[in-house]
Task: structure prediction
Amino acid sequence: MTDRTTYVTLSGVRRRGWTDTMVRDLLGTPDVQGRDPRRWSLAPVRLYLLARVQTVERTPEFAETSALAPGRSAAAGAFAERRRAAVLTAIRAEPIEVPRLPGPELERRAVRHRQLLGARSPGTKQGTATPPVTSSAPASPGFPSGALVRWQVSYLRQALSRYEALLDGLYGETGRGEAERLLRWRLYEAIAAAYPALAGECRRRIAVER
Result:
């Protein structure tokens, strides 16, 4: 994930495919500058927030400017490929910790999550809302067949949304799409392992997304 206190040097920005002109016009003044007391060189230190650099790289101005910069596209492509490989490796290695809840509690949370989604949806019609469930009673059995299973998987998937931070720094359609699919597959596999009763729905979602 991108740390808001992580900086990149001017050389690091150049390795991402930026030219000095692009740095001047699109990034402007460095976020940190001065002399590094650890070095004998009098050359000034120029550091840029990595989060700010990545934000600019997603703008139309950056795309337009980089298309005109000689040699930029090859450098950017090489960096993007390295980043894609690193993210895929991180997703494969990351331990997925699924919340372990008693069955009735998971059902209550899943129904509540569904209710909140319905309340936020502008297309929800009066009379079609999910039946209410109290915090002290188990979820009502009066739901459509398979609904509770689907809702529980959706709730757990939302509870694991913090792992989406692993995708930070991937903006290319192809590379990000591949990483997103791998991450979803790993999350559903982890949910299925933690809750065997939900494994069928998890496998169904993986198959649909493939």
About this structure: The first strand starts at residue 7 and ends at 9. The CA atoms of residues 94 and 136 lie 35 Å apart.
